[in-house]
Write a structure and sequence with these properties.
By secondary structure, the protein is α/β, with parallel strands linked by helices. The chain has three domains: about 25 residues; about 70 residues, Arc Repressor Mutant, subunit A (Orthogonal Bundle); about 180 residues, Rossmann fold (3-Layer(aba) Sandwich), CATH 3.40.50. The chain is about 50% helix and about 15% strand. The protein contains 16 helices and ten strands. Strands 6-5-4-7-8-10-9 form a seven-stranded mixed beta sheet, sandwiched between helices. Helix 14 links the parallel strand 7 and strand 8. The longest helix has 25 residues. It is globular, with a radius of gyration of 22 Å.
């Protein structure tokens, strides 16, 4: 199925935001603040659903909580209460006979769903993420990255020492990429032949979707040895394994990979301006003159508050040393690293900021 045009996506987002503002304006201030401060409830209901598999039996049709509990060997009354809580947020529907139905949104909680968000939910409710958010008040006072200050290490050091959480983080990033990839692929005029290089691309989720759309292209995937080893199975599942060459390399130490187009998706927002400059210089050292680097990120204008980018920006404060940036900020960073400005393309969700090797 083709993704909707960017203009349609933007219109849908603006309508949703307008309706949300209108709904908020109709509520008394105390009720609105009560709703916001209770945000832990939907998040932890989602975590309970994915950890217990609570909604999985509903994939086959309506059931009572007792029937769900019997199949999964859960506590029936508690299952009813949690499923009812999920109904408040539109994940399930509850009828007057006590039967629960799984909604289309609720189906994204299923592990086997092609667009499952189960890994994202586990990541967002993990101790790693919560530790950073809990430290935000101190970050407002001292400006320090929250996770680093809370734990005494960077998120990358933490993940290196916790392989299970590192694997969950990788699955989460892949889920987000697969949601955004159709819009990104449809919005950009990709070459019909040549080479596309995905830098820090994990198992190659973004690269695979580009190659599937352009059969004449070949790919280079730059990452550490672990993701490259895992990429073989993933790329085979997408039917492009014979067109991708893995290149072991590092964002800071360098790599050798010549291509016409380079991809950098959701990488720079993890790093400070100084570190971004180092990453961009690393890519420029590998890129031939005239090669295009596509920075794929949510774009944040300094004086515009929008969901999800403005919340993602605070998430970067909670977890990393980075931030969400505007196209102008990317152009400034690129200029200092040997790139000239190219186009800015709004996909309706992600921005595509084009930097050209000068």
């Amino acid at each position: 199925m083709r993704p909707p045009p960017p203009a349609v996506v933007r219109l849908a987002q603006r309508l949703s935001s307008a309706l949300g503002r209108a709904s908020a304006a109709l509520k008394p201030p105390q009720a609105r603040l009560l709703e916001i401060s209770g945000g832990v409830a939907p998040v932890m209901l989602l975590r309970a659903a994915v950890d217990t598999g609570l909604v999985a039996p509903l994939a086959g049709g309506p059931l009572t909580a007792g029937q769900v509990a019997e199949r999964l060997r859960l506590h029936a009354d508690t299952a009813h209460r949690v499923l009812r809580g999920l109904a408040v947020y539109g994940l399930t529907r509850l009828d007057r006979h006590g039967r629960f139905t799984l909604t289309e949104t609720g189906r994204l909680l299923l592990e086997e769903h092609p667009h499952s968000m189960a890994a994202w939910i586990r990541y967002m409710t993990s101790p790693m993420v919560l530790a950073g958010w809990a430290r935000i008040p101190e970050s407002v006072r001292d400006g320090l990255p929250a996770f680093n200050a809370a734990t005494g290490q960077t998120i990358w050091e933490y993940l290196a020492g916790n392989p299970d959480e590192e694997a969950g983080f990788a699955r989460t990033m892949r889920e987000l990429t697969l949601m955004a990839a159709p819009l990104i692929v449809a919005a950009y005029q990709w070459p019909e032949s040549g080479t596309v290089c995905d830098v820090g691309g994990g198992v190659g989720a973004m690269l695979a979707e580009v190659l599937r759309a352009r059969p004449g292209l070949r790919g280079l995937l730059v990452d550490h040895a672990g993701p490259l080893a895992a990429s073989r199975e993933y790329l085979a599942s997408r039917g492009v394994e014979g067109r991708v060459t893995g290149v072991e390399g590092d964002l800071f130490a360098g790599f050798s990979a010549s291509a016409e187009v380079y991809l950098l998706k959701d990488v720079l927002h993890d790093w400070s301006d100084e570190q971004c400059g180092q990453i961009l210089r690393t890519i420029r050292a590998a890129a031939p003159l005239g090669a295009r680097l596509l920075v794929l990120e949510w774009l944040q204008e300094p004086n515009r508050a929008e969901f999800p980018v403005s919340i993602s920006d605070v998430m970067m404060l909670a977890q990393t040393e980075g931030r969400q940036r505007s196209a102008a900020e990317f152009f400034r960073l690129g200029d200092a690293a040997g790139f000239r400005p190219g186009r800015v393309i709004d996909t309706g969700a992600y921005g595509i900021v084009e930097l050209v090797a000068a």
